[in-house]
Each structure stands twice: as structure tokens, then as C-alpha cells.
Amino acid sequence: MFKNYRLLAQPVYDIRQKKIVMYELVVGKVGEKASSFIEEKNQMNTFFEENYSGFINWLQKELMKILAKKTYPKISINIRSSQFFHLETMKMFERLRTHNDKIIVEITEDLVRLPENKNHLTPMELDAFLYGKIRSLQAFGYEVILDDVGCGINSLERVTYYLPLISGFKISLEKFELNRIEPFIAAWKKFADENGKQVVLEHVKNETDSSVLLGMNLALQQGNWLDKVVKKRVS
Question: Is 13 exposed, middle or buried (0-12, 13-18, 19+ CB in 10 A)?
């Protein structure tokens, strides 16, 4: 059922130290050409929800294969808040806890889809439920970060609520030009520094943006442009 799906490794670079610090693993579907991959996020999420037990078993096996090879120093995986309503999710993390020092859990910004048996939850009860799940991940020894703050449900209010449980967060430049949201990024950077949290910038588009971010003391960066630069350096 999942033979056409793969985990794609997207490096996160420390620009100042000029090294890769971790790899984000993203689910992709094999395209018509064997070497091409498609990220149809909404369609894939619907398919995974409808076949969740099979999906989580596939994901666990793929992660175990990757961890056994010891190719990557550290990996991060994306988890939607809705996935915590499935018992299989926490069972997977319990089985993988022997590798907890190699795995970072990214809680995505996707809106929460409540199952029918949880429709009665108030916003406060939902927050408490999710807080408990993330605290369990922390108890298992996992590092947790929030993905794409300022987008979807990962607002400043939510980040503040989960602050005791997370080590940092990501900011995405995918849909924005840096010069238009630089004050936004600076505010998040200040907030992170005041609370001892790390910040990763995703979808860094070019050398100019990378240099500006480094000047803001934001050295952890991710993006296709950086991937090409590193490949040139090592080829």
C-alpha cells in the first residue's frame, strides 16, 4: 500500500559552523520518473488518516531502517496534532525511545481535525490534551520543536503555552520575501533568546537572505539553495 512512498531527507545547516546539524524527514510520493518525488500534502494526509495503522507501521519501519544505518547524526519527523488522537502514534514513539537522542519531533502548524468521539472538547480541553501528549514525548526523552510558528495553529499564544516542553521552533520563508517579514523574524528571535530556545529558518531562498539571517544571529537554516551550495562544496 505504501510502496510508492519514501522519506526524503532535507538537511538543516549551521551556516556559521558550516556543517549539517540534522535532517528533516518528509514523506514524499514517487513520481512518474523514479528519481522524482511529489509532496501532495493534503492528499497524502487524507490517505494516511484513512489508513492510519498501516501508515504508522510503515513509518516506524522506515525510521528503524534509517536509524540502523547511522547515516544521519540526528533526524526530525513531522507530526500533526491530529495524529495524537491515534493510540498508534504514542505507541510508535514508545517503541522508538531507544533512539530518542537521535530523533526530534516537529509538531506542525496544521489545523486540528477532531475525531467524532472528541467533538465535545472545548479549546482549553484540547490544549490540555495536546499538552499531555507532548509532555509524554518529553518524558520519553524526545526533543520537541514547533514547526512554522506564526502560521496555522502555531501562534505566539500556543508557543508560549508549550514553552516548557519545547526546545525551539521553525519559521518558514516559503511564501514570503525576507525584507517584508524581517521585523516579524526579529521579534521571534528576541522571544527565543529571552526563553533560551533555538530558531530554524526554513526555505531560505538565496545567499543574500542567508547572509541577512546570519547577521541576525540566525545560523540554523534550511532550503534548496543551501542544498545546492553544499553539494558544490563537496563535489
Answer: buried
